[in-house]
Amino acid sequence: MIQDPKHIIYLDNASTTCIDPVVAEVMQATYREYYGNASSLHSVGTAAHEVLEQSREKLAGLLAAMPPEIIFTGSGTESNNLALKGVAFANAHRGRHIIVSAIEHDCILKAARWLERQGFSITYLPVDCEGIIDISALEKAITDKTILVSIMHANNEIGTIEPVEEVGNLCRERNVFFHSDACQTFGKIPVNVQAMNVDLLTVNAHKLHGPRGVGALYIRNGVAVEPLLHGGGQEKGIRSSTENIPGITGFVKAAEIACTDLEPETERISAFQEWIMIELKQRLDGVYFNGSLTNRLPHNINFCIEGMEGEGIRLQLLLDDAGICVSTGSACSSNDGGNPSHVLQAIGLDPFQARGGIRLSLGRFTARKEIDIFLHIITEKVKQLKPIF
Ligand SMILES: Cc1ncc(COP(=O)(O)O)c(C=O)c1O
Fold it and tell me: Domain of 241?
């Protein structure tokens, strides 16, 4: 049974976030007032179309893109699939080689494996012990058959931020398209398609206190992408299906709020992150942190407790009993909590350790008092686990 939400301390904002009440209000108003199909030619349809195009303009502005370069989709997963498969099939005449990092979200890795079965060859670029890709290894991996490189802006499990500007520069020099998955960074750190030198960029709404089931793909003008969904020709024919106008207005409102408050919010959350890391180290024996300590998302903390990695899921359940939600592994990709994390293994943990990563992810509504309570409770719960060994 779900506990009273008022008493829950939610530290799993990298999986998804609660909707901002202001965003929910905007969506409700859109449902009421702009119910038309944006493709209909009558007044109700054209009103919906206007809202759609205003939303596109606003989102483009936040990303430093041009409005026609924004394609609204149904999720981050869909945007990532569209980027990989769409670029692959539209550019197969130039080559059939694609490079992705080994720590991408499953929706990139599984799309890449599917493309292998369609005759494309994929290089899975390793990362170092902090989770950072090696630019010179990438340089060596690019061949004259490479059409696309896809490296995430920051990792969803360990929060490591990748050197995307450098990747973008290299790709441009080598005439290869560059896609980046920014689902974990949009609204958390600056995301600017010009500064990042990306050709394609994935964002979604539910990681920044917007609705689930809404995403977007930035496609730089001139990049050919084969559609995955064929139908009525919406979104310039790249993503057919009647646009989800309430979802899109909610997404854009959530993004505007997150981007407006970005600097002070980053400062606030970074201070919480530092506090939690210091306290965990002091209170619990054998704590070690996963991911980069310097190139790191401010809201992410991923740690194991030496010798107790096998108890990660039990610790998660004990915390849940106490009303605290954290995650083990990459809970935003599946419920297979028992499988060792591919990300933790890629940074050098063995499968036993890679099962025991606990991820805390803070959000805009995380309060100081909640962290105090969390620190107190986790100290007690870990003591309960210890005697078992
Ligand atoms: C890095 C990353 N990419 C893609 C996704 C998938 O996004 P969605 O849940 O909108 O399909 C997620 C989270 O779920 C994510 O963290």
Answer: 21-260
